[in-house]
């Protein structure tokens, strides 16, 4: 039988009414004569009794060994799986639960890990006995057989990895938003649902700050050529990823805040980059000139960067409270009118642009954090909701 994978986020299972809606989603798949693998997140968000953040708050993170921290955090998804199993059985849907370890998710580490391989033998064995399996997301097994937990977006990644490994028809990610939006609806009044995206487009949107899906989940879906849908429990609308190619040129504006721009006067850029890599400081938006290199870091990494460069007597300048705003679309690089329109649009509104960069699908501008929301609104209005279209093709 065909297999579909459904992932329910923590807010999608947070009360009995939402769990009933989730049960209806499972029943629709069974009516289509699909076997169903369900991946669940821990119920609720911080403050809820079994959310990941709440569980972590029960122990001092720095005093508990990583493998014990993972064991603690994995409990949230296991509780969620058991509660949703109860809802399914109450509705007459028989199911079985396999932990991430039992389902064959192998990881490269015990905490904040990545999935490195999948062994689906137990999954297929169980599917011979039942048409519905629940697998707690966000967890797997490290090389020593210990319970491991994944990083941010771990349940999405679990779902897409499982879908790719069992050659599922598709993977549906249920969340509390109606799909991937063209902009942050809290900032952009006319933000709309993007109906379809390629894997590359979805990866760029996720990587540039959108929280609806994690880039690692998109990578697994692309690896298995699995169509992914994300939306809410109404099962209407939503966004399909990898199902149909897009034709629109520009379709999303996103932003990453809490950044610091660093400018280092140095000719040996490689030495600077190696030095920071050894300190696990991630850098982005890199601009290399003959005697200077500019890049951005997260503000949390600034103390370690300052300490590292000061120890080496390397002079640098820093610009704090900046945000990276990204315009994402097909054929962005080299498209006539894009760069000049962005610069003109922002400078006319007295928004300083401290740095720019582009790729084949993304154009970035670095602006002051105080201007980030206004920049997103301007770019969204001009490129996605134009009065008439004003960019030359």
From TrEMBL:
Reactions it catalyzes: L-aspartate + ATP = 4-phospho-L-aspartate + ADP
Keywords: Amino-acid biosynthesis, ATP-binding, Diaminopimelate biosynthesis, Kinase, Lysine biosynthesis, Nucleotide-binding, Transferase
Ranges for domain ACT: 327-393
EC identifiers of the protein: 2.7.2.4
Transmembrane segments: none
Calcium is among the record's keywords: no
Nucleotide-binding found in the keyword field: yes
InterPro entries in the cross-refs: AceGlu_kinase-like_sf (IPR036393), ACT-like_dom_sf (IPR045865), ACT_dom (IPR002912), Asp/Glu/Uridylate_kinase (IPR001048), Asp_kin_monofn (IPR005260), Asp_kinase (IPR001341), Aspartate_kinase_CS (IPR018042), CASTOR_ACT_dom (IPR027795)
Pathway: Amino-acid biosynthesis; L-lysine biosynthesis via DAP pathway; (S)-tetrahydrodipicolinate from L-aspartate: step 1/4; Amino-acid biosynthesis; L-threonine biosynthesis; L-threonine from L-aspartate: step 1/5; Amino-acid biosynthesis; L-methionine biosynthesis via de novo pathway; L-homoserine from L-aspartate: step 1/3
GO MF annotation, one: aspartate kinase activity
Entries under Gene3D superfamilies matching the protein: 3.30.70.260, Acetylglutamate kinase-like
Protein family: Belongs to the aspartokinase family.
Job of this protein: Catalyzes the phosphorylation of the beta-carboxyl group of aspartic acid with ATP to yield 4-phospho-L-aspartate, which is involved in the branched biosynthetic pathway leading to the biosynthesis of amino acids threonine, isoleucine and methionine.
PANTHER family to which the protein is assigned, alphabetical: ASPARTATE KINASE (PTHR21499), ASPARTOKINASE (PTHR21499:SF3)
NCBIfam families listed in its UniProt record: asp_kinases (TIGR00657)
Protein name from the UniProt record: Aspartokinase
């Amino acid at each position: 039988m065909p297999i579909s994978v459904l992932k329910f986020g923590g807010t999608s299972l947070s009360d009995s009414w939402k769990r009933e809606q989730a049960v209806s989603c499972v029943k629709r798949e069974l009516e289509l004569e699909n076997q169903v693998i369900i991946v669940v997140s821990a119920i609720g968000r911080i403050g809820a009794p079994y959310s990941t953040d709440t569980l972590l708050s029960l122990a001092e993170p720095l005093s508990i060994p990583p493998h014990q921290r993972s064991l603690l955090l994995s409990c949230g998804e296991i509780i969620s799986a058991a509660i949703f199993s109860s809802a399914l059985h109450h509705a007459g849907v028989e199911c079985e639960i396999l932990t991430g370890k039992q389902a064959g998710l192998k990881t490269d580490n015990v905490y904040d890990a990545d999935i490195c391989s999948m062994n689906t033998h137990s999954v297929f064995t169980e599917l011979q006995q039942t048409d519905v399996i629940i697998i707690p997301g966000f967890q797997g097994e490290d090389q020593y057989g210990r319970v491991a937990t994944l990083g941010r977006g771990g349940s999405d990644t679990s779902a897409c990895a499982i879908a790719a490994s069992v050659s599922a028809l598709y993977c549906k990610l249920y969340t509390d938003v109606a799909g991937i939006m063209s902009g942050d609806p809290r900032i952009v009044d006319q933000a709309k649902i993007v109906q379809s995206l390629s894997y590359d487009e979805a990866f760029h949107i996720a990587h540039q700050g959108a929280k609806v899906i994690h880039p690692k989940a998109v990578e697994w879906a692309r690896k298995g050529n699995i169509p992914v849908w994300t939306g809410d429990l109404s099962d209407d609308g939503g966004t399909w990823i990898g199902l149909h190619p897009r034709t629109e040129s520009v379709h999303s504006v996103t932003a990453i805040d809490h950044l610091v721009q660093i400018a280092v006067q140095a000719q040996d850029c490689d030495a600077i980059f190696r030095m920071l890599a050894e300190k696990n400081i991630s850098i982005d938006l890199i601009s290399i000139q003959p005697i200077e290199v500019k890049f951005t870091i997260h503000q949390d990494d600034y103390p370690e960067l300052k300490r590292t460069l000061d120890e080496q007597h390397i002079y640098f300048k820093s610009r704090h409270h900046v945000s990276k705003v990204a315009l994402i679309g097909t054929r962005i690089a080299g498209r006539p009118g894009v760069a000049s329109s962005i610069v003109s649009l922002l400078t006319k509104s007295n928004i300083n642009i401290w740095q720019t960069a582009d790729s084949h699908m993304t154009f970035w501008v670095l602006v002051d954090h105080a201007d980030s929301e206004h920049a997103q609104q301007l770019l969204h209005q001009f490129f996605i909701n134009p009065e008439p279209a004003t960019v030359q093709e």
